[in-house]
Amino acid sequence: MPGDTCPEPAALVEGPDAARRLHAIIHLAKTLATTHHFSEVVRVSAAQARLAMGAAHASISVWERDTGQLRVLVNDGELAEGEEPLPAAETYPVTDFPDIIESEGWPTTWSRCVDDPEHTRDPERVAAMLRRGRHDCMVAPIMVEGRVWGELYLARRADQPRFEPVDAEFAGVLAAQISAGLAQAEHFERIEKLAFTDPLTGLANRRAIDARLDEAMARHYRDGVVVSLIVCDVNGLKRLNDERGHDVGDRLLERFADQLSACGAMLPGATAARLGGDEFCVLVEGYPPDDVVAVAEELCRRALRMHNGEGVACGVASTGDPVGPVTSADRLFRLADAAQYRAKGSRSTRPVVAGRGQQPDLTLSLAREAQDEAGAEGPGPHRDRRRFRGALHNAEPGRLLAAVLAVLDEREPKSVHRADTLGRLEIVADTFARMLDGVAWWVSYLPPGGRVLRTVRYSIHRLTGVQSEAGPRYDAVTAEYDLAHYPATADAVQGGGFVAELGDPGTDPAEEDLLLVGGYKAMVAAGGTNAAGGWLVEIYADDLSLSVTGLAPVLRALVAVALTGGASLPD
């Protein structure tokens, strides 16, 4: 299999640095182009980066946001005692790498040497490097889809030259090349993971937290393990979406998710999740309630410091506090919900903790009212859990994502050739629209380097008043759009997504005009690129459709999955 061995090309050790580095990049790109399995891409990338940089050691780590840990996937080159080529459980808190967490933009590559003056303030890190026989190290963030995915770590011995600024630039180029290979490989192993992961933030989703909470409560009943929940809503998201647009709101959610991940990592084993919209939680097992409250307080402090943020409303509930019998996962969630509801109503900048208020505790009363309203026998294991956040519906992001992925996975081997980009996108568009009871869907194509988007496939599921008067307004063969006049669409074709709704101040006027012409109420659009060019999927809704609010990240993830594999031009 290509990539099984990583011979050192002669050009890596001979000739001028510029030529050597160019050859190294080309060699890495060619190797990754023929390597498709995720684990193999990671292994080959670490080996090739080490050779290209003249390092003694290289490793690649991934940021697991739900646990707040950097997990080492592979170690290459000289290994210290206890290190393994493919470690099973080598992790480091992401809080040890503030350059990655706190960056508002594109993180930079940085290096550290044991004799740097600033290291005198960090003797433990110096000792760890020396213990492993390393004198100089460099970290290059690996970015995938515009966010930090993980890092490339390189180290040299004391008898090797120190890393120079030009080395940092070269390491950044290598990391960018590695990110392209990882992005392609990840799609092959992503479908199952996506069903339990929030596509916008990378945290666990509601489905994952439901399953883990049930398991945690089973251990509580059996062994008396303390189970705690932190539930919070991001304040001011609707105002930000209305005044600055949903893309700005999404960035706030992503930054808060990063802080939630980092705070969850303070209690190893905790799971951070996004429940949907502006609602998040952290599930904690085995820690005293006071430790959980301390983490919730730190989370509130960090949220207040976020750019464009207004803090969070945070509630905490624990089986270790005086909250009465917790006979179900629902009961614990209702308690945390009620505490969060009280924090929201009082505009508290600190968490409200169930069972710790004045007697009688209003939080416990709210939780009882919610349970009485739901009734003793509800429709399912987590009935009406989110009383204070509104009812769930069939367009819940996790459910929608899993359903479309299942149809794509079921139909593709039978009816769609692996190289048929358009066929895969059609499956995504049609299933997504049917789940929303949408009016219509459109798939459009942009040639490489082009500026005119052409609709190549469409379907109308239900006629609107405008369509019924004059028939469909667009011909699927001739509909073309100059992207210079549609900035939101132009961004989406490059891998973004957006929601447009009539009357929403954040909607691009050009997109609102399209809604008016077609007689639609709202649309969700997302796109991406592959070797054939750019692609866009649009789903249109009317008054009978479910809400499309918050679904752009879901459609964006599904389009990314559909673009995986061979690329074919539309007919």
TrEMBL record:
MF annotations from Gene Ontology: diguanylate cyclase activity
SUPFAM superfamilies to which the protein is assigned, alphabetical: GAF domain-like, Nucleotide cyclase
Alphabetical list of Pfam families matching this protein: GAF (PF01590), GGDEF (PF00990)
Domain GGDEF: 225-356
GO CC annotation terms, alphabetical: plasma membrane
Gene Ontology biological process terms, A to Z: cell adhesion involved in single-species biofilm formation; negative regulation of bacterial-type flagellum-dependent cell motility
Domain of life according to the entry: Bacteria
SMART domains assigned to the protein according to its UniProt record, in alphabetical order: GAF, GGDEF
NCBIfam families: GGDEF
Protein name as annotated: Sensor domain-containing diguanylate cyclase
Gene source species: Embleya scabrispora
